UniProtKB/TrEMBL annotation:
Record-linked SUPFAM superfamilies: Thioredoxin-like
Record-given protein name: Glutaredoxin domain-containing protein
GO biological process: cell redox homeostasis
Transmembrane segments annotated in the record for this chain: 29-50
One Pfam short name: Glutaredoxin
Residue span(s) of domain Glutaredoxin: 70-127
PROSITE patterns for this protein: GLUTAREDOXIN_2 (PS51354)
Amino acid sequence: MTRVWFLPLLLVVVGSAVATALFLDGSPGTAAALLLVFVLLAGVNSPLIFPRSIGALEARRRSAADGRPVVYWRPGCPYCMRLRVRLGRATRQAHWVNIWRDPAGAAAVRAVNDGNETVPTVVVAGQSHTNPDPEWVRDHLFPSA
């Protein structure tokens, strides 16, 4: 649990320290702007921006029932963030599995990526795709459309 919050907390602490130094040097406007940038970066890298993760076994069960993709991800991954942002509101249509919280999810990713925990790994109809194009994933979010 602490590992998923490490980067966001580090960004807030470093941003606060830099902003404090700038404020004390007489640049309150620059300090406020820089602090805002660091807080936004922390928010983007936090687990809050992703839908609630479920376990790998539950994700596979749900995917078998509704045909939606399973997305294996981890906090702090820029490629996962790219996928999340590019999917927009459609993100909630996929089943998200945080491999740092679910050992079965991490094992599933290692099994299809030569032992590496390469994310995002998207599984559609039993076929895994490592770091796929977000538009391709969007096309598979609504299999009946």
